[in-house]
Design brief:
About 25% of the residues lie in helices and about 15% in strands. With about 675 residues, it is an alpha+beta fold. Helix 3 packs antiparallel against helix 5 and helix 7 runs antiparallel to helix 8.
């Protein structure tokens, strides 16, 4: 049985717009078209005035009568839109859409009649209350989603906002004002490069004057939901609702991140999908409002020059020598002890246990064929085959037992050493040894300097401070590349990284995306159990230390933005030409429209590829503020709501692609720009 949503407790609200704001068209008591007696002006919007009238032919039944604003009556285009609204609205018959009856004319003034609604617009309610509870928000949005699911069969609304959502006294929720609506497949009344809608609720593509789709309406709905819950608009690098109210569930943060994705391809594809996501969240017990799924109707439901994408060439170049172990890398005393230990071992035994090389390569249909777990020196690592995921070129077959942890003493790894891990099925994963050391973590630029140099507000970058010294006391292994689709599919055979705007993200050598922090943890657990070694995600400190690789510049290749195309796959002229996203692009060309095969760009001094760009990478830590003093081996807060992401991506602006830049997001979040790489003690 359906239950209505009654907001009687919200109290009375003043009308926000009256006839006196635009001049009176019809006076109280006037009879329009010999039928409709004007009672009073009750409101209006960007294009029209609305009157409460009595239909004398229907025994005084109350109706609403809408006319164009006096200031627009001489506009032919406004007249066309008004007629279009009437024609569109008359074809939409649904309990969550205001019913439109007739289009008429009186004394040269066009009008349309609609059902009269007794209640308040969502804008009035928010003006009075500031915010709504989650339960009430979901009940209102359920009605809007029902309306959109029905209307989107033929129509794009293009102006979803609180003023166009009405809550009746009996609990019914109504979607209003199809004056800017467009019939699906029609460009009538829409000029190219003309932004149509209300700016603060418009999707980025609408602001750019591009054609609005159903997903533009869903973006606008996301803005409305955010406003209902927080009393604010999601501008810039906005905080998630649960940061304002810790009782709000994580699934809601996930939902809003999807709805507010800058690219339409990353948003839910339909209102039905959004309804399903809400149902799933409610079923998981994170909300007690099962009534949110009722539909809220209050009655029974009726139905740079463009370079060609290059093949992987950089691995053929001689890799940079590992950086000297200075104060940026490791204390000299530690290096002396390591060298002394190696010399003593060399004198004590005739030879060190020879490491077995990888097994003969299997069929290279995925470009990641390789061998069993092995380690090589930095020099041997540089002789490895070009394709990431493949082991050294000269090998001997490794016995099956070598895939288990060695019971014999292993030599101390040295900078540049590479360890190859067998994932089975001819697929391998390479790790690079990162030596211990210390570095300055955080941005050397102030938040104000970053904001002025790149974009946005200084508050977006305050979490990169205070800058502080971090000591990494123990060396560790880190993925040479981001985990690829082929590698991830050894764990989850049916994984798909999908596509973006018709461009595949699912190639074997492309990084695995649409992987949450929880998914990455599951992969680490699987690989640890398979190998007997403790794989994890890198801590945030390990990640930045490994990314910087002894540098103190904005990025590991320097402070110059112009050379970015040699080192990182970011949103640049290539992406701008293809997608024209409404944010700045790097003034360079990397040749890749979406994710690039791992290893397509130059590595940093540690021999790690794609630490900046390609995909954002999950870190182990909960997100939190930086400490004010020096720390050793930090692991972040003990609890939190968000996990850390680092490194920028193929679809992000250049200012987000810096060694110090931090992102935070809920652990269950999946996106086309999110991936991960591994770490191991």
């Amino acid at each position: 049985m359906e239950r209505s949503f009654n907001i009687d407790s919200l109290g009375d609200h003043p009308t926000l717009f009256t006839a006196k704001d635009e001049g009176v068209v019809f006076a109280a008591g006037e009879v329009v078209a010999d039928r409709f007696e004007v009672v009073e002006a009750v409101g209006g919007g960007g294009m029209g005035l609305v009157y409460k009238v009595r239909d004398q032919l229907m025994e005084g039944e109350l109706k609403a009568l809408k006319v164009i604003l006096p200031s627009l009556m001489k506009s032919e285009r406004a007249q066309q839109r008004f007629v279009q609204e009437a024609h569109i609205a008359q074809k939409l018959s649904h309990p969550n859409i205001v019913t439109t009856y007739d289009l008429g004319e009186h004394a040269g003034i066009r009008f349309l009649t609609m059902e009269y609604l007794d209640g308040h617009s969502l804008d009035e309610i928010l003006s009075e209350r500031g915010t709504l509870s989650l339960d009430k928000t979901l009940r209102v949005m359920a009605g809007v989603l029902e309306a959109l699911a029905y209307a989107h069969r033929t129509t794009i609304h293009r102006d979803i906002k609180p003023q166009n959502i009405f809550v009746c006294r009996d609990g019914a929720v109504k979607l209003l004002d199809f004056g800017l609506a467009r019939i699906v497949g029609s460009n009538r009344f829409t000029q190219s490069s003309a932004a149509v809608g209300t700016a603060v609720y418009m999707a980025p593509e609408q602001l750019q004057g591009e054609e609005a789709t159903r997903r533009a309406d869903l973006y606008s709905l996301g803005v409305v939901i955010y406003q209902c819950l927080t009393g604010r608009l999601p501008l810039g690098r906005f905080r998630l609702p649960s940061e304002f109210n810790s009782s709000l569930p994580r699934w809601l943060d996930d939902l809003l991140l999807e709805l507010l994705a800058p690219s339409p391809e990353e948003r839910p594809e339909s209102a039905k999908v959004v309804q399903r996501l809400i149902r799933q969240g409610v079923r998981e017990g994170e909300s007690t409002t099962q009534e949110a799924l009722s539909g809220g109707s209050g009655r029974s439901r009726t139905g740079n020059g463009v370079a060609q994408p290059r093949e992987i060439q950089e691995p053929r170049q001689r890799q940079p020598e590992p950086p000297a172990l200075t104060a940026k890398a490791a204390p000299k005393r530690r290096m002396f002890l390591i060298i002394a230990a190696v010399v003593m071992l060399a004198l004590a035994v005739p030879f060190i246990l020879r490491r077995e090389g990888p097994a003969p390569a299997g069929p290279e249909d995925n470009g990641l064929a390789g061998a069993a777990s092995s380690e090589t020196s930095g020099q041997q690592g540089r002789a490895a085959r070009d394709d990431p995921g493949q082991g050294p070129a000269s090998t001997t077959a490794a016995p099956a037992a070598s895939r288990q942890p060695s019971q014999q003493t292993e030599r101390q790894p040295t900078p540049g050493d590479i360890k190859t891990v067998d994932l089975g099925g001819g697929v391998t994963l390479e790790l690079v040894w990162i030596p211990p050391g210390d570095f300055m973590m955080g941005s050397k630029l102030s938040a104000e300097q970053v904001a002025s140099k790149y974009d946005g507000k200084a508050e977006y970058y305050t979490d990169e401070h205070p800058r502080h010294r971090v000591t990494i006391s123990k060396g560790f292994w880190m993925g040479k590349y981001e985990v690829t689709n082929a590698q991830y599919r050894r764990f989850k055979a049916d994984h798909s990284s999908k596509e973006y705007a018709g461009h595949s993200l699912d190639g074997d050598r492309q990084p695995a995306v649409y992987v949450s922090w929880e998914d990455a943890q599951a992969f680490c657990k699987w690989l640890s159990e398979r190998t007997g070694e403790g794989f994890t995600l890198p801590t945030e400190a390990q990640w930045e230390y490994a990314c910087r690789a002894g540098t103190d510049t904005v990025r590991y290749w320097g402070d110059d933005d112009g050379t970015m195309g040699n080192y990182a796959n970011v949103y640049d002229r290539t992406g701008k030409a293809e997608f024209n996203h409404p944010w700045d692009a790097a003034d360079t060309t990397d040749g890749h429209k979406v994710t690039a095969p791992v290893g397509s760009f130059r590595p940093n001094a540690f021999g790690l590829y794609d630490m900046i760009g390609n995909v954002l990478e999950w870190c182990q830590d909960w997100y939190g503020d930086y400490p004010s003093g020096s720390v050793t081996d930090p692991t972040g807060p003990s609890t939190g709501s968000y996990r850390v992401l680092r490194g920028g991506s193929w679809s992000l602006n250049p200012w987000y692609c810096r060694s110090a830049n931090r992102f935070r997001v809920v652990p269950g979040y999946r996106r086309s720009r999110l991936g991960f790489r591994l770490a191991r003690p």
